[in-house]
Design a protein that fits this description.
- The protein has helices at about 10-20, 40-50, 60-65, 70-90, 120-135, 155-165, 185-195, 215-225, 235-240, 265-275, 275-280; strands spanning about 1-5, 25-30, 50-55, 95-100, 140-145, 150, 170-175, 180, 180-185, 200-205, 210, 230-235.
- It is of the alpha/beta class.
- β4, α5 and β5 (about 140-145) form a beta-alpha-beta unit.
- The protein is globular and about 55 Å long.
- The protein starts with a strand and ends with a helix.
- The relative contact order is 0.15.
């Protein structure tokens, strides 16, 4: 297959390139392709003529999105629209990487693919706008919602926890934000399997199970050999952040599971991540 990846130097982009090593892949970084530039997007996709475009490029800084919602919408909403339009012109299928934060976290149980999104922050609203563009422009699309992505070399939650150990005393993490930590390597492998399926639509792809940020930090410290670090549970209100996060946004994998695509529990994935050489080097 000929596959073009946007956000090709990000956490997921790097893992996708490894998972697609046997295919013909063009992975473009943010510097190489500005997805908000319609002409550049059309030119890149039109010249490469991919069968599938995996759109992983995004503005994912939640606080940054809240501070500048126009930028978030321009990149995550309008940028996705430009990619979808170019895919339609090139007759390519598109996989759009979306997020658990399209939901408000009030359901009290895992969200199904069919549940109505109700984002409560600028990041979630911009990603939902991207979903709507994909659905309205294309017939052949996959929307893959995921959560709490991490990989070696990324500015992700495990990396931030270990960085904080070196600079702070007692660490504080919230108990009222619950979702599913997802290793980018597992997600990339699931995406590769998904784009080989003819059944388009919305899919939830996360590692199995869920935890709070506090519980995730606990496990990160244990696996890093720093179980001695003082850790205090707090709630979101203690931080006084200008944006809200969904309190419970575990995603139920029904659609992909029906195709035989199931990701392992998050605890198993995190443990293997810490056994890899890149993860050890990042401690």
């Amino acid at each position: 297959m000929r596959i073009l990846i946007t956000g090709g130097r990000g956490q997921l982009g790097r893992e996708l390139q490894q998972a697609l090593a046997s295919e013909t892949v063009l992975a473009l970084s943010r510097q190489e392709l500005d997805v908000t530039d319609a002409a550049a997007v059309g030119r890149a996709i039109g010249q490469f003529r991919p069968q599938v475009v995996i759109h992983a490029a995004a503005h994912t800084d939640t606080a940054g999105c809240e501070a500048n919602p126009e930028l978030a919408m321009r990149v995550n909403g309008e940028g996705t629209r430009q990619v979808a339009l170019a895919c339609r012109e090139a007759e390519a299928a598109m996989l759009y990487v979306s997020t658990n934060e399209v939901f408000d976290g009030q359901k009290g149980e895992p969200y199904l693919e069919s549940d109505e999104p109700r984002p409560i922050n600028a990041y979630g609203r911009s990603k939902l706008a991207g979903e709507r563009y994909v659905q309205s422009i294309l017939d052949r699309f996959y929307i893959a919602r995921t959560a709490w992505l991490y990989a070696a070399g990324g500015n992700n939650f495990p990396a931030k926890v270990l960085q904080a150990v070196a600079s702070e005393g007692e660490l504080r993490f919230v108990t009222d934000e619950v979702a599913s930590p997802t290793w980018a390597r597992d997600l990339a492998q699931a995406i590769v399997r998904l784009i080989g399926q003819p059944t388009c639509g919305i899919y939830h792809l996360t590692n199995g199970g869920c935890c709070s940020r506090y519980q995730w930090a606990q496990r990160v410290l244990e696996l890093a050999g720093r179980g001695d670090v003082a850790l205090r549970p707090v709630v979101q209100a203690d931080y006084g952040a200008p944006h809200r996060k969904p309190p419970y946004s575990e995603l139920a994998n029904r659609a992909a599971a029906a195709l035989g695509i199931v990701l392992r529990p998050w605890q198993e994935a995190l443990q293997e991540y810490f056994l890899t050489a890149p993860a050890r080097a990042g401690r």
